[in-house]
């Protein structure tokens, strides 16, 4: 047993090296690209002034942000700040946005984001919101696609490594967060050696308000101390269920590379969330202390508030019979994907040679006939053979993730053999395979994890770039590859670089989002308490050591633009309102020596930058965003006098 594992591990490592070396040494890559179509350029070309067909939202990985790309061009349209501060537009630096990055650990202006998911109605993309997880300090963010702005971030308590997230149910009833690491819950000081049997994993179901989009933790299911890696909701016939892959069912706490690969099979946990919801609605579950931040952007003031919550409802699976089952799945499954009909649940076993497909119908049968094959911590384990729908035989090495098109095909990514394999759902036969450059993680088809995929393109999100672009030193961006999947064979069309490390991505037709996209904020609707909506509102007010400047801006001046009476040791708040009401005329604001970035203020909005002058002098501020022929004239001065000066405020 042990021996097989070592062989498998060796295989993993060798195969990894081979695929990388292959890439590194290649002179001309075109010969090796199989599916590169002869008129590829034409098919990705989006003429100047034309729009792409799809928005693709690609996770920023360790950048903590969300990249918005156009498909098929691969053009980067925007870096949308989520979990990380972004000096480019002041996200996480302005007083309005700082509370968004608050957590129970304090201000945490970075995270590692993996999985964007677009909201759905009846299992079809609806273009309202994108959700994305923060892995490191467990959080889920909601981005409003009207504003293309992060409007809410909720922290997940009793979780560690929020990886199995942020996947949503068919009507966006819930966004789900699963813990990657099991930990003592509640946290306490104990020996790591006592992990087994004592650590726990939490699966968190967060209710989404259909009007406002606001998130609220409904319950946390307390699971055995495995690692919960990825998840997907049931759809259509399996609506009401959620499936989570697990690894390290050995509950090893050290050298997981070896110790967590002993078991022949790990599990997919099948959760009947409808049943648990009913149990909870009838008063079930236990309220326990929990400390977590819930940060919301107010829609009138565009100012975030952070609230610290103090309890959460926990559910023990043993208290809801029939709600949780384990489906044995070979070897350290990573992705857990459900086909558009909801019948097939695919376990992508990283260390398995075959792809295992479970049948939802057979699963329900086995449950009804109580055909179990033991239990783990009281949770029934179903018999592998009883629920097996089929096996895709030896399709490649190191399967990670599977997406679906609208013609009954599945596309699985293989990290080790660095390829994408197309196979037929139901017959399990391999139809096509294409190499990718190099070592693909997720793949993405627009709507490819919904009931209605838009099966035109497949994007491979590759981990390793190597020789694909002009070298930029030891650090390269990551790389995506676009395939046309309308024919029998996948055809490679385009490589394009991506920011951070895009794990998962989600894409939607542009015309499902763009018509609702906001152009400006209406100045008349600006309810910011420090807004100056007309020139007569502008003022400078001292409150002890705090000085509040109510300033406005329009092409191309600030009002006021000369301010005197500020002193060393003061804390100066520039509350700046952009009076423009034209699309795409933001102004910027920066002041010398301010260590907290600039801010970019969109038409109709108010943003606040704090400045603590350390030295006397007459200091300039200016607009950082080219706005008119007189942009360079858009400037002002603020005079700073000694702390004991008796010069009064004037402007
Ligand atoms: Cu496979 Cu974090 Cu979705 Cu990366 S995970 S690849
Ligand atoms: S100035 S257009 Cu520095 Cu030429 Cu910007
Ligand atoms: Cu305003 Cu440049």
Automatic annotation (TrEMBL):
Keyword vocabulary terms for this entry: Copper, Metal-binding, Oxidoreductase, Signal
First-listed, main subcellular location of the protein, grouped into a coarse class: other
Keyword Oxidoreductase: yes
Gene that this polypeptide is encoded by: nosZ
Localization terms from the record: Cell envelope
Phylogenetic lineage: Bacteria, Pseudomonadati, Bacteroidota, Flavobacteriia, Flavobacteriales
First and last residue of the signal peptide: 1-20
GO MF terms held by the record: copper ion binding; nitrous-oxide reductase activity
Protein name stated in the entry: Sec-dependent nitrous-oxide reductase
Keyword presence, Iron-sulfur: no
Entry-linked NCBIfam families: nitrous_NosZ_Gp
Class of this enzyme: oxidoreductase
A UniProt-annotated Pfam family: nos_propeller
Highest rank taxon of the organism: Bacteria
One annotated Gene Ontology cellular component of this protein: cell envelope
Enzyme Commission identifier(s): 1.7.2.4
